[in-house]
Amino acid sequence: MNQSVDQTQGTSFSLPARVLHWLMAAGILAMLFIGVGMVASVSEQHNWLLAIHKPLGAVLLLLVCLRLIVRLVKGTPPLPADIPAWQKRAALASHWLLYLLMFAMPLIGWAMVSASGTPITLIGVWTVPAIAPENADVFAMLRTAHRYLAYLLFATVLLHLAAGLFHGLIRRDGVLGSIISNRA
């Protein structure tokens, strides 16, 4: 995830990168709130939310794969030259953390459901194979990991949002604009 830039890209992310960013932002926020609703409900709402959570997690896993490919192929626009080096390193580290969590959350969720012994039905009768052995201890460990990583993801998303707003409203340096529109 270098800060290199494709020479044709200019100062904005590519259109595919921008579309994937905003699709995933909406999906991740939905997943976080659906997850909170699932664990807070013991009613029939739980099953309804779970029926949304599983296929959306699968879609997000596919989207993050595409997003990583686009990022590696197209690069990212450079940060403004006047940003201190420590902030550039923090930005790069936070993006690595977001990518790690965007991959880890659906994979851990998939493994957790696999360990529960429940078939993973996404849409209709389409199921995906188990990726973990059926085991109550493994399920409990993965459920705990999924919960705490969700907290970390939520905190990281909030920091990412705060940084974007800082760049857009306070610094007005074009960083926020680079993910909103094509300014090349």
Give a summary of the structure in a few sentences.
The protein has 184 residues and is mainly alpha-helical. The protein is built from 5 helices and 2 strands.
List the helices and strands and how they pair.
Layout: H1 15-40, H2 44-74, H3 85-116, E1 120-123, E2 126-128, H4 136-171, H5 177-180
Antiparallel strand pairs: 1-2
Helix pairs in contact: 1-2, 2-3, 3-4
Structural overview:
- With 184 residues, the chain is mostly helical.
- Helix content is 70%, strand content 4%.
- The protein contains five helices and two strands, in the order αααββαα.
- It has a two-stranded antiparallel sheet with strand order 1-2.
- The longest helix is centred in the last third of the chain and has 36 residues.
- The radius of gyration is 18 Å and the shape is elongated.
